[in-house]
Design a protein that fits this description.
By secondary structure, the chain is of the alpha+beta class. The protein folds into two domains: 38 residues; 133 residues, 3-layer Sandwich (Rieske Iron-sulfur Protein), CATH 2.102.10.10. It is built from three helices and nine strands, in the order ααβββαββββββ. The protein has a three-stranded antiparallel beta sheet with strand order 1-9-8, with no helix packed on it. Strands 2-3-4 form a three-stranded antiparallel beta sheet, with no helix packed on it. β8 and β9 form a beta hairpin. It is elongated and about 90 Å long.
Length: 176
């Protein structure tokens, strides 16, 4: 009888040990597949970008890259701000007030990708056509955006997206 009990405990030990080693082996084999789903180091490095806006004068705009997309940073003039604030929301296909699209009044920061088919609208350079509303114009299909980046005319269904950002000083903004 003692011999049978000894064999059962030995068998239980072997089963538990084999199961544990198999589980650890399976976890080690599966880990590379799970780990490859994490963002790449270069993507994590682009998660946010710091932009110096000290040299951008009223009426000027700059383009910075963030997460592989152009981001338009525009220092709006008083006329551009007044124009954006005076638009009745009923006239907008995607009605959002200007005050919800900006954190500090003269600065507008939007992702520079047309919401129709992903083109990059014109309007960053002084010589670019800015459409009928003084903002941006996408020549691919004729979308017109106003000085708040809101769609006013054309096939684009939504306003230019506003990325997450924060002002870290009077002359610096962190996007992302």
């Amino acid at each position: 009888m003692a011999e049978v009990q000894h064999d059962e405990s030995r068998r239980d030990f072997l089963i538990v040990t084999t199961t544990a080693v198999g589980a650890v082996g399976a976890a080690c084999a599966i880990w590379p597949f799970i780990d490859q789903m994490n963002p790449a180091a270069d993507t994590l490095a682009l998660a946010s970008t710091e932009v110096n806006i000290g040299a951008v004068e009223a009426g000027m705009a700059i383009t910075v890259m963030w997460r592989g997309k152009p981001v338009f940073v525009r220092h709006r003039t008083e006329d551009e701000i007044a124009s954006a604030e005076s638009v009745p929301l009923d006239d907008l296909p995607d009605p959002v007030p200007d005050s919800e699209r900006v954190q500090q009044t003269p600065w507008l920061i939007v992702v520079g990708v047309c919401t129709h088919l992903g083109c990059v609208p014109l309007g960053q350079k002084a010589t670019d056509p800015r459409g009928d509303y003084g903002g941006w114009f996408c020549p691919c299909h004729g979308s017109h955006y106003d000085t708040s980046g809101r769609i006013r005319r054309g096939p684009a269904p939504l306003n230019l997206a506003v990325p997450g950002y924060e002002f870290t000083s009077d002359t610096s903004v962190r996007i992302g």
